[in-house]
Amino acid sequence: MSAFRVEAGGRRHRALRAAAVAAVVLVAAGIPFNSDRVVVGQLTLVLVYAVAALGLNLLVGYSGQISLGHGAFFAIGAYTAATLVAKAHLPYLLTLPAAALVTFALGFAFGVPALRLRGPYLALVTLALAIATPPLIKRFEGLTGGVQGMSVPQPAVPGWLPLDPDQFLYLLVLAAALLAFLLAANLTRGGLGRALVAIRDNERAATTMGVDRARVKTRVFAASAAYAGVGGALFALTLGFVAPESFGVALSFGFLAAIVIGGLGTVGGALFGALFIEFVPQYAERVNQALTGVIYGATLLAVIYLLPGGVAGLLRSLRRRLVEVAEPAPPGAPPAGEAGVQAGAVSPAERGRLPAS
Amino acid sequence: MERFLQVVVDGVADGSIYAALALALVLIFRSTGIVNFAQGEMAMFATFIAWGLYDGGRPLWVALPAAFAAAFLGGMAIERLLIRPVEGAGPLTLVIVTLGLFILVNAAAGWIWGFTNRGFPSAFPSGVVQLGGVALSIESLGIIAVLLAVVGLLGLLFQRTNVGLAMRAAAQNPDSSRLVGIDVGRMLMLGWGLAALLGALAGALVAPRLFLDVNMMGGVLLYAFAGAALGGFDSPAGAVVGSWIIGVTENLAGTFVPAVGADLKVLVPLAVIFVVLLVRPSGLFGSPEVTHG
Lengths: 357, 293
What we know:
heterodimer; A: ABC transporter involved in vitamin B12 uptake, BtuC; disordered C terminus; B: mainly alpha; 2 strands; 71% helix
């Protein structure tokens, strides 16, 4: 039984949620001031991956379209940012919206034909896209620097800030990631999120209820690509270097592994998944070059069989023991009956399965 | 002209290798509705088993059948242990499971045999034969002959034996098959075993043409997917014809279209898959998917 009981959407529920988010943000913002440089660098990359994984989760987790090729959009974002900073000498902050726009447009263009590809077929086409990405980058040598790659001038710390470059970079990426997560949280709670889940769970019923399938699906594809693109741009700025081999199939598989392990169809899952794909290879590769793959593969299978909600699902069920979130009682119903106890915390996914009111 | 014919025959030979893998994909897709992304990696693993035996001093005619047998058993075990629990799940779950298997098998092979390239012996003599004034490699002709023999054997199995009939029945209508006493689970296991065997054959045929390494089958899998998509994912004959078309197109484009070249040949299957799925999703020989609405 839960210690607390709050009403979904009520004042206490929102206060609790805001407090939880504020605590996470405070801890995250404090990290660069009491950790060593290596850890700060690693956590910066975690945030970068989290942004891209979040985008993929919007597509896969919420709308049920499978992409094995989000590394391609990540690469396009990275090279857009790299070119704009290194060749056009644009201020680095402008590269983020630029990368978002470019990948949004490409994602939209890709999303239109993707409408006709169901289930495994979309996975197939996007897999081919992931495999073709490094050779394509190498082919456009004049623009991308080919195999050699391209170095990117990193953001300089403004003079009035008493920060190291690593700390500044981390906080910059953290700000971008926070914005991305807030946007995604709003998006998935709003009409588009509900429409997405409705389509995923029962396309025909959703269409009957008036959801414009083509519009919703192409938009989420574009938004998802834009997230990957922004992630790529942050990646280029963080590393100060882009090369074709960073954007192979392994990257795309890594993003998919991240969202499955973190929790499909959750906003927070992307962060847990990003921690996984940043830190597991760090330690596994010390033992054996192949261990990373073994852990990825085995964990993917284990999550599907044993923990379909991923880490986020696990945390949610743990939280349920502490705080119970009950749906507000409909007017006229007896207060706090058995139904309220069973409703528990209602995730966007679960909410989508309820009949629309 | 001679060059053109050589490229075409090499293309059909490559296409025959893709066809073996495409047949494996089609076999599994028809019976379980799963597109097995791990098919290529399973094939690579079996090829490494053959290489390990050969490297340990066994002759090729022992190593290859032993690896094929291992592939058959391994395929059955994978169906029973990993696929059966998620039978009937949505496409997302199935893609993730076969993808997890892909990553796991790839890494396991790297762990056991390392990440370096290995030469793999060809089962065919090197050299060429003159056919109508055109020099054609014995290996290419041999590969085509092997594939035709495999297609013939599969045809016999599915059309002329009770097991084949039971397998077709289990794929077409599992519920009715159960009612007439067919062990559907065993048939599915058999199908996965057979598919793994076909994949291992593709691996053994392609390894001498490339180098054997853990990522050898990535490209081949893509070409096989393209072949299966072109021919129709539920049509074995279509998979063979589609793979031949892919093999020939790929070789012609790689040889005669400078803009494509060796590095971007991989875009050929991408373009084919994309166009086919958009214009004619059921492929050349497949049956269109019917949605009851």
